[in-house]
Design brief:
Layout lengths: L30 H7 L4 E6 L1 H14 L6 E2 L5 E6 L4 E7 L4 E4 L12 E7 L1 H4 L7 E5 L8 E5 L2 E6 L13 H17 L7 E5 L31 H21 L6 E4 L2 H4 L41 H17 L4
Parallel strand pairs: 1-4, 1-7, 6-8, 7-10, 10-11
Antiparallel strand pairs: 2-3, 3-4, 5-6, 8-9
Length: about 325
């Protein structure tokens, strides 16, 4: 769904723009060196569909060096590069904390319950086997759910009974707590000896509505000159960074296991880098607005491949290189 050229997108300039940091040089991705640095090691992408987007970008880049073996299952995506015994894994974890649909207090059965103070066991039990962990979350906090803290229902998103009074925690506050919970659990786990990279909130570029209410990014073919501020993105980013900093404080001497990969501001400029209506190879798909002026279904959240998302893996490569080579520059 992110192969924009294969799905008929007519322009290609979005593939060629590169982000230039102000105070350093970001080297191009070196696939052979990456695999050598990760010899015998495991890299895990854990989180939502944007985590999958980044993992697939990395696989596409590495595929130019070597074709991996697919050893995945229904629970995990797993790819192995035999030349260096490097393993890349993806694990789905919508909120990075424990989720249940069982009834809790006033929250009925069937509704997603997000336990903000319990890390997601889906991946936590496997972290001793991970050398690098890339975490992606945030967008699911816009989904209908109830928030549980210390065993009590403390808030919700798109759900809250009138008789329950005022919520203690809204969705953006819940996001911050979940980040602190997950990262603290990772850093303080004595069996996790790798590094955990928290990638910051990935901006979307829907205009005129959300993903399910006619939002569009059709016709965006160049990066923005000036970012149009998005209050939700800015708030989620702030809560995430605060949660990261609290986790660092909580972790003490183990805090060096935690890394922040800050992509939110630079990629807010890349309104041109999303699939938009080019989400499938169907030659009969709609790519123009209809007679009523409404746009076709759009993806203005995920990123075209190749495209801006590849830069995230250049940043990840640099984090790994510095960690493995002991470069503190």
């Amino acid at each position: 769904m992110q192969n924009c050229q294969g799905n008929g997108r007519p322009d290609k300039d979005y593939e060629n723009w590169r982000w230039k940091p102000e105070q350093c040089i970001l080297p191009r991705f070196d696939g052979s060196k990456f695999l050598e640095l990760m010899r015998g090691k495991t890299l895990a992408f854990v989180g939502d569909s944007v985590a999958r987007n980044q993992m697939e970008s990395l696989l596409c880049i590495l595929w130019q060096v070597e074709t991996p073996i697919n050893r995945g299952s229904r629970r995990w995506n797993r790819w192995i590069f035999r030349s260096t015994s490097t393993t890349i894994i993806r694990i789905w974890s919508s909120w990075l904390v424990h989720r249940s649909v069982e009834a809790v207090g006033i929250a009925p059965k069937g509704l997603d319950k997000v336990f903000l103070d319990i890390p997601d066991e889906t991946f936590m039990e496997y972290i001793p086997t991970f050398d690098v962990l890339v975490l992606s979350s945030g967008h699911w906090f816009a989904k209908r759910s109830a928030y549980i803290l210390n065993g009590n229902v403390v808030g919700g998103q798109l759900w809250w009974p009138r008789q329950a009074g005022k919520m203690e925690i809204n969705n953006v506050d819940a996001f911050g707590v979940s980040v602190e919970t997950c990262l603290t659990a990772l850093a303080t786990n004595p069996n996790f000896t790798g590094i955990a990279v928290m990638r910051t909130f990935s901006p979307d570029h829907y205009e005129g509505g959300a993903w399910n209410t006619g939002g569009s990014c059709t016709g965006k073919v160049k990066p923005l000159d000036v970012v149009v501020r998005n209050g939700f993105t800015d708030t989620m980013y702030g809560k995430q960074v605060t949660g990261f900093r609290k986790a660092v404080q909580n972790s003490g001497k183990h805090s060096s296991k935690l890394k922040l990969m800050d992509i939110t501001e630079p990629f807010a400029f890349r309104a041109d880098g999303h699939p938009g209506p080019y989400r499938s190879p169907d030659p009969n798909k709609k790519t123009q607005r209809g007679p009523d002026g409404k746009p076709p279904p759009q993806d203005c959240l995920h990123w075209c491949m190749p495209g801006p998302v590849d830069t995230w893996n250049e940043m990840l490569f640099e984090i790994i290189r510095r960690e493995m080579e002991g470069d503190s520059s």
